[in-house]
Amino acid sequence: MKFPKDFMWGGAIAANQYEGAWLEDGKQPNVTDVLVGIMSREPGIKWNKDTGKYEIALDENKVYLSHEAVDGYHRYKEDLKYMKEMGFNSFRTSIAWGRIFPNGDEETPNEAGLKFYDEMFTYMNELGLEPVITLSHYETPLHLLTEYGGWSNSKLIEFWKRYVKTVFERYKGKVKYYLTFNEVNALFRMPFVAGGVLTIDNPKDVNDPIGSTTLQDQWNAYHNFLVANAETVKLAHEIDSEARVGCMLTCSSVATYPYNCHPANVLGALEAQRQSVFYFGDPFCLGVVPSYLKKWWKKDGVNVEFTDEELKLIKDYTVDFFTFSYYRSSVYEQEQALKADTGGLTGVTNPFLKDAAPKPWGWSVDPDGLRYTLNVLYDRYRLPMIIVENGVGLDENLNDKGTIEDDFRIHYIEEHIKNVALSLEDGVDCRGYLYWGPIDVVSAGTGEMKKRYGFVYVDRFNDGHGSLERAKKKSFYRYKEIIESNGEKL
Prior knowledge:
Helix content: 25-40%
């Protein structure tokens, strides 16, 4: 197995799942702060009919683990040392927008938030870890939704530009790689979190605010995301000639296989790729709004219009590289509707896949699907590729030796990294593999600690108790060996 000498080996986390300190040093709530998990349809907000606005109303019977998470806000130096010990040369995390602009619409930034990331990125630089920084990882300030309706409102483009301009100027020379919106192509299945959208004018169902967004709201957000992404690339290149901006999409659904060679299944698999990935990937990478969207808009009864200036902006300022998450493949069969969760799409069972993660989650394991995804994306976009999420969540606890024998995780990463190597032989320009997540964090989908991904264990549990002490798992040493050999010891 041959990897380039400068291949990016590392891991990835998100501020909202790692940092905690959800109201510390001036930070205000974001969309994930009022949810137990991002797949939940019961956010801790309620409609006040007297004021005609939403307000925070957390459920006292629920545990919001993300509020303290694994205390990364205070322990990141300890954790980054673990990453360095494994041999990481890169590390992905996000900036919590609400630490910099607490409500999102302020004129001036919060210095305490800027200082926190200043110190974190400086420490990463000192350790020799290349920061790969997501500008928005499901972390839109909640105020922007309750006051403006979120990304369906074009005002957010200006608020966003103010935020990213501040970030680019402050961290110039410390951060080179930025990602815009994490998995924004999940907009239509998770409008509240991935889309940052909330209907605030006469919501249809005040008891289900996540479902109260209209298709017009969501398509307006799509329009604004495309414009904001291009504006981000433009600003980054103007402010810092060394900065590079990439998109970040959930791409498990690229590996959607037709159940058989029936044309309806082949076309259905193609449509799944379009609806899940390409409708965002094409504008971000090729600068073209797909023509097939006109058919979708007509079907949905919505009106989406781009000005000539916006279309030129999108064409002129495409991303510099492509990053994505991949967890599992799916199978399309015309008689069964595809479903979706944080791992991607699910259809009929693939009889040719022999591996599956242990229950209770039991996701199918398809390492070849990662190679397939890399080839499809690179053939389409011809941009450098970086895998910034790939991992397996397991229910595990320390044994009497104070460690965890996570052999299945070792098997998982070995097989997926082998397929990265095979994609390099295929001619794919893949620049890095950043495992999700190298230290146990709060699960995004379920909002619990029970679903652990890390090479480093964190002593915290679903009911909120735990010492927060860290411990190395068996996989820690195996991933370290793979990195030290630059992938040769697979």
